[in-house]
Design a protein that fits this description.
The chain is an alpha+beta fold and about 300 residues long. The protein contains 12 helices and 12 strands. Helix 1 packs across helix 12. It is globular and about 60 Å long.
């Protein structure tokens, strides 16, 4: 464990090779600027073949992880940093791997009594679900199709009938791996920010075209963000409790965002993002700003959690 101060050799990892590279680059650049504004001298690192030699050359003492998706968020980089004995922000190896795997995380949530949408897992090489089965097992259309292990809503689509289901499965398969098909729950979509085990606040997302997919998330003007969320105080307590329970169930650490749907007195947990977007317009910064914490202060607070691991 090190004491992090303005003289610490801080490496900011961003970019990488996942499908979320462009978002990661934006997060990393914003983090670098924020740390510099606070008086730190961070070193930006886009990990490649020379990654480990560069860490040693730069004498990096602590890592701020701004990698999204793929090997940046699934526990791989975390395991390497553990081996090198370099502290890093965010969740540990196991929690990172579980957070990226939407199937395994849901199995754990259900074991803890956390409510999730009904879902089916489709193996990469198979697609055998008929519209009749969708009705029987998920309650019918519409349904949501998503890759089992991608973030930033990549490959996520809404299917209103059997033809659209085939199209959405084909699109999601382009990212490789298994798929999840889940019931579509119409309700308030509320994302809860958590830092070091404490709820920071919530933001409700309202896409203009009715579904919060990649296009709605990253196209300016396609989504309205509401703070506070349009739910009752009791609903907010329920959402916060479900989000924190999910964070703890996976053994998360540092900052995370838990995506939920609230409908008819019930909080449904969709997933936990263990390295949420940190561009200045991302949801975690919006939540922090609403609670009185500006972006540079948020980034510094996340940095200070680098020695803390929950799993």
């Amino acid at each position: 464990m090190i004491r992090i101060n303005k003289k610490s050799r801080i490496g900011v990892l961003y970019g990488g090779t996942s499908a979320e590279r462009e978002i990661s680059l934006r997060s990393g650049r914003a983090v670098l600027a924020a740390l510099e504004s606070k008086g730190y001298r961070p070193i930006g690192i886009d990990p490649g073949a020379d990654f480990v030699p560069r860490l040693k050359k730069e004498k990096i003492e602590v890592i701020f992880l701004a990698l999204h998706g793929g090997r940046g968020e699934d526990g791989s980089i975390q395991g390497l940093l553990e081996t090198l004995e370099i502290p890093y922000t965010g969740s540990g190896v196991l929690a990172s791997a579980l957070g990226m795997d939407k199937l395994l995380s849901r199995i754990i949530f259900q074991a803890r009594g956390i409510v999730v949408p009904r879902y089916l897992c489709v193996e990469k090489a198979a697609f055998r679900f008929s519209p009749k089965e969708i009705k029987t097992r998920l309650g019918g259309f519409p349904v949501v199709v998503k890759p089992r292990a991608e973030g930033s809503s990549l490959g996520v689509g809404l299917a209103r009938n059997g033809r659209e289901l085939r199209d959405r499965v084909k699109a999601a398969r382009s990212y490789g791996g298994d798929l999840l098909i889940e019931e579509f729950i119409s309700g308030a979509e509320v994302h809860v920010g958590i830092l070091a085990g404490k709820v920071m606040g919530e933001v409700e997302v309202v896409p203009r075209e009715g579904f919060y997919d990649y296009r709605a998330k990253y196209t300016p003007g396609m989504t309205e963000y509401l703070i506070p969320a349009r739910v009752s105080a009791g609903a907010r307590r329920d959402l916060d409790a479900a989000a924190r329970a999910s964070y703890l169930a996976l053994g998360c650490a540092g900052v995370a965002r838990v995506d939920c749907i609230y409908r008819r007195g019930k909080s449904f947990v969709l997933e936990v993002n263990t390295i949420p977007g940190l561009t200045e317009t991302s949801l975690i910064p919006k939540i922090a700003q609403a609670s009185g914490r500006d972006y540079p202060s948020l980034v510094e607070a996340i940095l200070m959690t680098a020695n803390l691991k929950g799993g």
